[in-house]
């Protein structure tokens, strides 16, 4: 059974690039356009890890992380923030919310995949 990774980003092209990298590495991919969309899609399948943008309309990434950590079934689901934000303050906010890793855009697929392999739940 393959692992399923949810990719949350308001940019369709970024979701596509991340999706291609993940599918190439053997993962199944579920896409969401923002945090709110992602929360609605969560119950439909088991998600082993989430890759999430920080700056998005409707619900931003940090709010999403706080929300997912409130859900009993997803409390331990690792979240990797993938973002143009490199400020320490944002990183600390993300970590405080429960994000497990921070990958900056433009990203190198091998860096992202390395972080995923370390964190993905069995």
From TrEMBL:
Q: Which residues carry this modification: 4-aspartylphosphate?
A: 53
| Recorded superkingdom | Bacteria
Which BP terms in the Gene Ontology apply to this protein? Answer: phosphorelay signal transduction system
Keywords on record: Phosphoprotein
Query: What positions does the domain Response regulatory occupy?
Result: 4-120
Q: Where is the signal peptide?
A: none
A Pfam cross-reference name: Response_reg
Q: What is this protein called?
A: Response regulator
